Amino acid sequence: MFPKQTKYDLVIVGAGLSGLAAAVTAAENSLDTLVIEKGRSIGGDGNYVEGAMGVDSYLQKQAGITIDKTELLQDELNYSHYEASAPHLKKLIDNSGPTIDWLHEQGVEFSKVGVQGKSWPTIHTFTGGGHAAVQTLYQKAVDANIEFAMSIKADQILQKNGHVAGLSVQNQATGQFRDIETANILLATGGYVDNPELVKLRTPFSDRLFAVSDGKSTGDGMQMAWKAGAEHYQIGAIQYGGGAIYDKQNPPFTHMASQLAAAATQEAILWVNERGERFVNEDVNDNMCHAGSAILTQSRTFSILDQGTVDHLTNQGLYKEIGNSPVSPDKLDQLKVEIDRDLNAHRKYLTKADTVEQLAEMLNLPDLAETVQRYNSLVNNQADTDFGKDKQYLTPLKQGPYYAVELGVGMACALGGIRVNNDNEVLNDHGYPLTGLYAAGNDAAGMLVGDTYAVTLPGSTAGYATFSGRNAVLTITKRRGS
Ligand SMILES: Cc1cc2nc3c(=O)[nH]c(=O)nc-3n(C[C@H](O)[C@H](O)[C@H](O)COP(=O)(O)OP(=O)(O)OC[C@H]3O[C@@H](n4cnc5c(N)ncnc54)[C@H](O)[C@@H]3O)c2cc1C
C-alpha cells in the first residue's frame, strides 16, 4: 500500500536494524516519519544477527569488563590498514555502550556480553536473536505512530537546488510509482551483498562467494546516492563468513545449520587446494574474514576428513569450538547421517574414497598423498612447522574411508560505497554534505573498515546499524531546531 500522506519530515528507506533504530529515535523526537520497506516483512538481515557491539555498556559494567577505548581505536585502525575513518570509528566506539543501554531501555534484551573467537569483548548477544530485537523496535515505533509502508521500494532521490526534495517510490505489488515530498531521507538499505555486479567490483572471485543474507541487500541505497551526486567512495569490505560448502545447486541457507559444513569449515582439520597442497594454518577460522580471504587465495579448496575424524566428531566431541555457525553443539551427532544423505544425493561438493590415493585421483589432486603424509608427520611431532596451526588441532588422517568437502566462501554483508561525515550525512566528491541525505547501517559502514570486515570488534555492523540510525536522526532533529 502506498503511504497515507504525500509529505513527511523524514523518510527512512529500509525497515532493517538501522532503519528501525532510526524510526524509534524519530518518534522520540516527534518527527513526522515514514518508513518504507521493499520486502513484505520487517527486519532485513537484522533478523539473523547474533549480537551488537558496545563499549562501556551496562552489561559490561555488571560483568566488570573494561576496555581502553584509545587502545581499541588504534587496534582497529591498524587492522583496517588505516582505511577506516578514525573520527567515525571513534564516534562509534564512544557511543556504542550508550546505544546498547538505549536498546535495553527500549525493551531489547541481551543474554550475555563477551568475545567471539580472538576478539575484543564487545558482542552483546540478543536474547531471542536479532529477530526479537527488530520486533521490539518495530512495535515501539508502531506504538509511537510511525508509519510503515511495506512492499514499497525507493527508486530515486528527488532534489531541488541541490537539496533533497522528495523520493520516488514504487509499489512492488502493482508496479506503480509515486512521489513523496520530504526534505530528509535516510538510506538504510543494508549494503550490496546480494548484488553480484557490485560484489564483482570488490572482488574477482565472486563465483566462489555465496551470500547468506535475505536477498534484499541489493545496493539500492548506494546506487540512489551515487545518482544524487554522492561520492563513489571505496567499494568497501565484504564480510567473509569463513568457509562455506561449495554448492551451486542449493541456496546457501540450506547449509547454515549443517553439521557437515561445521566439520569442514570450523574444526581446523586439513585444507588443501586444487593441487592437493596445504596452504594455510586452518585455525585461521578464528577470524572468519581471514579464513575467507585465505580460501580465495587458491583456485579451489577442499577440507579433508578421514573416518577417524568423522567418528571422533560424531561420538566424542569437537576438536575446536564452533565459532561461526548458528548451531553450536558439543558433538556433531548428525554428521554421519548428513554424509550418507549427501553421498546418496550425489552432491558434487562431497567425495568419498577408500584411500587417499583414490580420493586424489577422483578429484585430480596430484599432491594430496604427499600432503597427507607430511601433515601426519607434523601431527606426530605435535608442531606445525609449516604454517603454525595450534598443536591442539593437529589430528591425524590415517583411517579410511576419506572424504573431501569442497569449500567456497560465505558472505554475510557487504559494506561501503557511500562516504558519510560524523553526522551520517552523505558526502559528495568534495567532502560536502548533500543536504538532506543521510545513510546508516551497512550503507555507510564502509567508513569503519579497510579491505576486510572488523570481525576483531564483534557485533560492529549491528552496533553501527543502531548507532548510525540514531545518529542520523539526532542530526536531523538538531538541524531542524537550529
Ligand atoms: C546471517 C547473518 C548474520 C549476521 N550476524 C551479525 C552479527 O551477529 N553481528 C553483527 O554486527 N552483524 C551481523 N550481520 C550483519 C547485518 O547485516 C547487520 O548487522 C544489520 O542487519 C545491518 O543493518 P542494516 O539496517 O544496514 O541492514 P538490514 O538489517 O539488512 O536492513 C535493510 C533493509 O532495507 C530494505 N531495502 C533495501 N533496499 C530497499 C529499497 N530500495 N527500498 C525500500 N527498502 C529497501 C531491505 O529489504 C531490508 O529490510 C549478520 C548478517 C547476516 C546475513
Automatic annotation (TrEMBL):
One Pfam family cited in the UniProt record for this chain: FAD_binding_2
Task: Specify the domain of life of the species encoding this protein.
Answer: Bacteria
Entry keyword Transmembrane: no
FAD-dependent oxidoreductase 2 FAD-binding domain span: 9-447
Q: Which cofactor does it need?
A: FAD
Report the leader peptide range.
1-26
Q: Does the keyword Oxidoreductase apply?
A: yes
InterPro entries for this protein = FAD-dep_OxRdtase_2_FAD-bd (IPR003953), FAD-oxidoreductase_2 (IPR050315), FAD/NAD-bd_sf (IPR036188), Succ_DH/fumarate_Rdtase_cat_sf (IPR027477)
Keyword field = FAD, Flavoprotein, Oxidoreductase, Signal
* Record-linked PANTHER family: 3-OXOSTEROID 1-DEHYDROGENASE, FUMARATE REDUCTASE
Q: What is this protein called?
A: FAD-binding protein
**Organism of origin:** Secundilactobacillus angelensis
